[in-house]
Write a structure and sequence with these properties.
heterodimer, A: alpha+beta, Chemotaxis protein chec, globular, B: alpha/beta, 5-stranded parallel sheet, 5 helices
Protein backbone atom coordinates (compact mmCIF):
# COMPACT_ATOMS: atom_id res chain seq x y z
CA UNK A 1 0.00 0.00 0.00
CA UNK A 2 1.30 3.43 -0.88
CA UNK A 3 1.38 5.72 2.15
CA UNK A 4 -0.85 8.74 1.88
CA UNK A 5 0.61 12.20 2.17
CA UNK A 6 -0.35 14.31 5.15
CA UNK A 7 -2.83 16.21 3.01
CA UNK A 8 -4.36 12.95 1.83
CA UNK A 9 -4.57 11.72 5.38
CA UNK A 10 -6.24 14.87 6.60
CA UNK A 11 -8.76 14.91 3.78
CA UNK A 12 -9.67 11.22 3.95
CA UNK A 13 -13.01 10.21 5.38
CA UNK A 14 -12.50 10.43 9.14
CA UNK A 15 -15.23 7.87 9.80
CA UNK A 16 -12.85 5.31 8.27
CA UNK A 17 -10.50 5.99 11.14
CA UNK A 18 -12.68 4.38 13.82
CA UNK A 19 -10.84 1.03 13.54
CA UNK A 20 -7.49 2.82 13.84
CA UNK A 21 -8.69 4.66 16.94
CA UNK A 22 -9.94 1.42 18.46
CA UNK A 23 -6.66 -0.34 17.69
CA UNK A 24 -4.69 2.56 19.15
CA UNK A 25 -6.71 2.40 22.38
CA UNK A 26 -6.48 -1.38 22.64
CA UNK A 27 -2.70 -1.27 22.27
CA UNK A 28 -2.30 1.37 24.97
CA UNK A 29 -4.39 -0.63 27.45
CA UNK A 30 -2.69 -3.93 26.62
CA UNK A 31 0.90 -2.66 26.65
CA UNK A 32 0.75 -0.11 29.45
CA UNK A 33 -1.97 -1.52 31.70
CA UNK A 34 -1.90 -5.21 30.87
CA UNK A 35 -5.66 -5.23 30.20
CA UNK A 36 -7.78 -5.97 27.18
CA UNK A 37 -10.57 -3.58 26.29
CA UNK A 38 -13.79 -5.34 25.39
CA UNK A 39 -16.76 -4.24 23.36
CA UNK A 40 -19.63 -2.66 25.27
CA UNK A 41 -22.71 -4.62 24.21
CA UNK A 42 -25.18 -2.11 25.55
CA UNK A 43 -25.11 1.63 26.20
CA UNK A 44 -23.29 2.41 29.43
CA UNK A 45 -25.20 3.43 32.49
CA UNK A 46 -23.92 5.54 35.31
CA UNK A 47 -21.87 8.66 35.57
CA UNK A 48 -18.64 9.40 33.74
CA UNK A 49 -17.09 11.93 36.06
CA UNK A 50 -13.57 12.20 34.74
CA UNK A 51 -12.50 13.25 31.24
CA UNK A 52 -9.06 13.42 29.63
CA UNK A 53 -8.75 15.66 26.59
CA UNK A 54 -5.89 15.99 24.09
CA UNK A 55 -5.96 18.49 21.24
CA UNK A 56 -4.60 17.76 17.77
CA UNK A 57 -3.32 20.57 15.57
CA UNK A 58 -1.69 20.81 12.16
CA UNK A 59 -2.73 18.76 9.13
CA UNK A 60 -5.39 17.26 11.35
CA UNK A 61 -7.19 19.45 13.88
CA UNK A 62 -9.42 17.94 16.47
CA UNK A 63 -9.99 16.83 20.01
CA UNK A 64 -9.64 13.38 21.49
CA UNK A 65 -11.40 12.75 24.77
CA UNK A 66 -11.73 9.73 27.04
CA UNK A 67 -14.43 9.55 29.69
CA UNK A 68 -15.06 7.12 32.50
CA UNK A 69 -15.80 7.18 36.18
CA UNK A 70 -13.25 7.92 38.87
CA UNK A 71 -13.04 4.30 40.03
CA UNK A 72 -12.05 3.23 36.53
CA UNK A 73 -9.45 6.01 36.30
CA UNK A 74 -8.03 4.96 39.67
CA UNK A 75 -7.81 1.36 38.46
CA UNK A 76 -5.97 2.55 35.34
CA UNK A 77 -3.44 4.41 37.50
CA UNK A 78 -3.08 1.36 39.74
CA UNK A 79 -2.36 -0.92 36.81
CA UNK A 80 -0.03 1.51 35.04
CA UNK A 81 2.07 1.98 38.17
CA UNK A 82 1.81 -1.49 39.67
CA UNK A 83 0.37 0.00 42.86
CA UNK A 84 -2.47 -1.19 45.05
CA UNK A 85 -5.77 0.42 44.13
CA UNK A 86 -6.16 2.01 47.54
CA UNK A 87 -2.69 3.54 47.30
CA UNK A 88 -3.33 5.67 44.21
CA UNK A 89 -4.81 9.11 44.71
CA UNK A 90 -2.49 11.89 43.54
CA UNK A 91 -1.56 9.85 40.48
CA UNK A 92 -5.07 9.45 39.08
CA UNK A 93 -5.31 12.63 37.01
CA UNK A 94 -1.75 12.43 35.70
CA UNK A 95 -2.14 8.76 34.76
CA UNK A 96 -5.50 9.29 33.07
CA UNK A 97 -4.07 12.24 31.11
CA UNK A 98 -1.20 10.03 29.97
CA UNK A 99 -3.67 7.40 28.77
CA UNK A 100 -5.33 10.08 26.65
CA UNK A 101 -1.97 11.31 25.41
CA UNK A 102 -0.84 7.83 24.40
CA UNK A 103 -4.12 6.96 22.66
CA UNK A 104 -3.97 10.22 20.69
CA UNK A 105 -0.30 9.74 19.81
CA UNK A 106 -0.72 6.09 18.90
CA UNK A 107 -3.73 6.96 16.73
CA UNK A 108 -1.99 9.69 14.76
CA UNK A 109 1.02 7.45 14.21
CA UNK A 110 -1.32 4.89 12.62
CA UNK A 111 -2.78 7.30 10.05
CA UNK A 112 -0.44 7.18 7.05
CA UNK A 113 1.25 10.51 6.45
CA UNK A 114 -0.08 12.14 9.58
CA UNK A 115 2.64 11.53 12.12
CA UNK A 116 4.90 14.38 11.00
CA UNK A 117 2.24 16.99 10.45
CA UNK A 118 0.09 16.76 13.53
CA UNK A 119 1.04 17.94 16.99
CA UNK A 120 -0.57 17.00 20.28
CA UNK A 121 -1.42 19.33 23.12
CA UNK A 122 -0.52 18.42 26.67
CA UNK A 123 -3.44 16.47 28.16
CA UNK A 124 -6.12 18.22 30.19
CA UNK A 125 -8.15 16.29 32.74
CA UNK A 126 -11.57 17.50 33.87
CA UNK A 127 -13.28 16.06 36.94
CA UNK A 128 -17.03 16.20 37.47
CA UNK A 129 -19.87 15.44 35.10
CA UNK A 130 -21.88 18.65 35.12
CA UNK A 131 -20.40 20.33 32.09
CA UNK A 132 -20.92 20.68 28.36
CA UNK A 133 -18.28 20.92 25.65
CA UNK A 134 -19.10 23.46 22.95
CA UNK A 135 -16.73 22.75 20.11
CA UNK A 136 -16.24 24.78 16.95
CA UNK A 137 -15.41 21.54 15.17
CA UNK A 138 -18.18 20.77 12.74
CA UNK A 139 -17.72 17.08 11.94
CA UNK A 140 -19.54 14.39 13.87
CA UNK A 141 -17.28 12.69 16.34
CA UNK A 142 -15.98 9.14 16.06
CA UNK A 143 -17.34 7.50 19.21
CA UNK A 144 -16.14 4.25 20.73
CA UNK A 145 -17.90 2.64 23.67
CA UNK A 146 -15.81 -0.01 25.36
CA UNK A 147 -15.34 -1.77 28.67
CA UNK A 148 -12.23 -1.63 30.81
CA UNK A 149 -12.39 -4.29 33.54
CA UNK A 150 -16.19 -4.02 33.22
CA UNK A 151 -16.12 -0.25 33.65
CA UNK A 152 -17.58 1.61 30.66
CA UNK A 153 -15.25 4.02 28.93
CA UNK A 154 -16.06 6.33 26.08
CA UNK A 155 -13.45 7.44 23.55
CA UNK A 156 -14.34 10.28 21.25
CA UNK A 157 -12.42 11.90 18.39
CA UNK A 158 -13.88 15.06 16.96
CA UNK A 159 -12.18 16.30 13.81
CA UNK A 160 -12.29 19.64 12.09
CA UNK A 161 -13.50 19.66 8.48
CA UNK B 1 25.22 -6.14 34.41
CA UNK B 2 26.64 -3.48 36.72
CA UNK B 3 24.24 -1.31 38.63
CA UNK B 4 23.43 1.88 36.78
CA UNK B 5 22.42 5.45 37.48
CA UNK B 6 19.56 6.71 35.31
CA UNK B 7 18.12 10.14 34.64
CA UNK B 8 14.43 10.04 33.64
CA UNK B 9 13.05 13.22 32.06
CA UNK B 10 9.29 13.57 31.53
CA UNK B 11 6.76 16.23 32.52
CA UNK B 12 4.45 13.48 33.81
CA UNK B 13 5.52 12.13 37.21
CA UNK B 14 3.43 9.03 36.50
CA UNK B 15 5.33 8.38 33.29
CA UNK B 16 8.64 8.82 35.12
CA UNK B 17 7.54 6.14 37.57
CA UNK B 18 6.43 3.87 34.72
CA UNK B 19 9.78 4.23 32.97
CA UNK B 20 11.62 3.43 36.23
CA UNK B 21 9.37 0.41 36.76
CA UNK B 22 10.03 -0.75 33.20
CA UNK B 23 13.77 -0.48 33.74
CA UNK B 24 13.50 -2.66 36.84
CA UNK B 25 11.20 -5.13 35.02
CA UNK B 26 13.81 -5.26 32.26
CA UNK B 27 16.31 -6.49 34.80
CA UNK B 28 18.22 -3.25 35.36
CA UNK B 29 19.94 -2.93 38.71
CA UNK B 30 19.29 0.75 39.40
CA UNK B 31 21.80 2.25 41.80
CA UNK B 32 20.28 5.72 41.51
CA UNK B 33 17.32 7.26 39.68
CA UNK B 34 17.29 11.02 39.11
CA UNK B 35 14.05 12.61 37.87
CA UNK B 36 13.44 15.86 36.01
CA UNK B 37 10.22 17.42 34.67
CA UNK B 38 11.75 19.11 31.61
CA UNK B 39 15.02 19.61 29.78
CA UNK B 40 16.14 22.60 31.82
CA UNK B 41 15.63 20.72 35.09
CA UNK B 42 17.50 17.79 33.62
CA UNK B 43 20.52 19.91 32.65
CA UNK B 44 20.61 21.32 36.18
CA UNK B 45 20.26 17.86 37.71
CA UNK B 46 23.16 16.53 35.65
CA UNK B 47 25.50 19.11 37.15
CA UNK B 48 24.94 17.51 40.55
CA UNK B 49 24.31 13.89 39.55
CA UNK B 50 26.43 12.06 37.00
CA UNK B 51 24.44 9.24 35.39
CA UNK B 52 25.03 6.30 33.05
CA UNK B 53 21.96 6.68 30.85
CA UNK B 54 19.24 9.26 30.17
CA UNK B 55 15.66 8.42 29.17
CA UNK B 56 13.86 11.47 27.88
CA UNK B 57 10.43 12.52 26.59
CA UNK B 58 10.23 14.94 23.64
CA UNK B 59 7.14 17.07 24.27
CA UNK B 60 7.75 18.95 27.51
CA UNK B 61 7.24 22.53 28.65
CA UNK B 62 10.11 25.02 29.17
CA UNK B 63 12.70 22.92 27.32
CA UNK B 64 11.71 20.00 25.13
CA UNK B 65 13.66 16.79 24.74
CA UNK B 66 15.29 17.63 21.41
CA UNK B 67 16.66 20.93 22.73
CA UNK B 68 17.84 19.14 25.87
CA UNK B 69 19.80 16.61 23.82
CA UNK B 70 21.39 19.42 21.78
CA UNK B 71 22.52 21.20 24.95
CA UNK B 72 23.90 18.09 26.65
CA UNK B 73 27.36 18.64 25.21
CA UNK B 74 27.69 21.75 27.40
CA UNK B 75 27.40 19.65 30.57
CA UNK B 76 30.73 18.10 31.58
CA UNK B 77 28.99 15.30 33.52
CA UNK B 78 27.01 14.29 30.44
CA UNK B 79 29.80 13.73 27.96
CA UNK B 80 29.32 10.31 26.36
CA UNK B 81 26.16 9.55 28.32
CA UNK B 82 23.68 7.85 25.97
CA UNK B 83 20.18 9.28 25.59
CA UNK B 84 17.12 7.23 24.68
CA UNK B 85 13.98 9.14 23.73
CA UNK B 86 10.66 7.76 25.04
CA UNK B 87 7.77 9.58 23.41
CA UNK B 88 4.38 9.45 21.74
CA UNK B 89 5.92 11.26 18.74
CA UNK B 90 6.57 8.21 16.61
CA UNK B 91 6.99 9.58 13.12
CA UNK B 92 10.08 8.93 11.07
CA UNK B 93 10.84 12.64 11.03
CA UNK B 94 10.87 12.77 14.82
CA UNK B 95 13.17 9.75 15.00
CA UNK B 96 15.56 11.37 12.51
CA UNK B 97 15.44 14.64 14.46
CA UNK B 98 16.19 12.87 17.72
CA UNK B 99 19.06 10.82 16.32
CA UNK B 100 20.47 13.89 14.56
CA UNK B 101 20.35 15.78 17.85
CA UNK B 102 22.40 13.05 19.50
CA UNK B 103 19.95 10.47 20.85
CA UNK B 104 21.15 6.86 20.71
CA UNK B 105 17.77 5.16 20.89
CA UNK B 106 14.06 5.77 20.41
CA UNK B 107 11.10 4.10 22.14
CA UNK B 108 7.52 4.87 21.16
CA UNK B 109 4.75 5.04 23.77
CA UNK B 110 2.96 2.77 24.43
CA UNK B 111 5.85 0.43 25.18
CA UNK B 112 6.67 -2.77 27.05
CA UNK B 113 9.51 -3.53 29.44
CA UNK B 114 10.88 -5.89 26.78
CA UNK B 115 11.08 -3.03 24.29
CA UNK B 116 12.92 -0.94 26.86
CA UNK B 117 15.31 -3.83 27.44
CA UNK B 118 15.92 -4.35 23.71
CA UNK B 119 16.88 -0.71 23.28
CA UNK B 120 18.89 -0.15 26.43
CA UNK B 121 20.91 -3.34 26.96
CA UNK B 122 23.01 -2.96 23.79
CA UNK B 123 23.55 0.71 24.49
CA UNK B 124 24.69 0.08 28.05
CA UNK B 125 26.78 -2.89 26.98
CA UNK B 126 28.78 -0.52 24.84
CA UNK B 127 29.15 1.97 27.64
CA UNK B 128 29.69 0.10 30.88
Amino acid sequence: MTPATGTQAASANPQNWAPLLEQAAREVFELMLGCKLTAAEKPSEGISDITAMVGLAGQLCGLLSIRCNRKAAALMASKMLGMELDQVENEIFDAFGEVGNMVAGNFKNKVPGLGDGCMLSVPTVVSGDDYNVHSTLASPAIELKMLFENFPISISLQISD
Amino acid sequence: MNSIRALIVDDSSVMRKIVERSLRQAGMDLKQVVEAGNGAEALAALNENPVDIILCDINMPIMDGLEFVKQLSSVPNAKGVPVVMITTEGSEAHVVQAISAGARGYIRKPFTADQVKEQIIPILAGKL
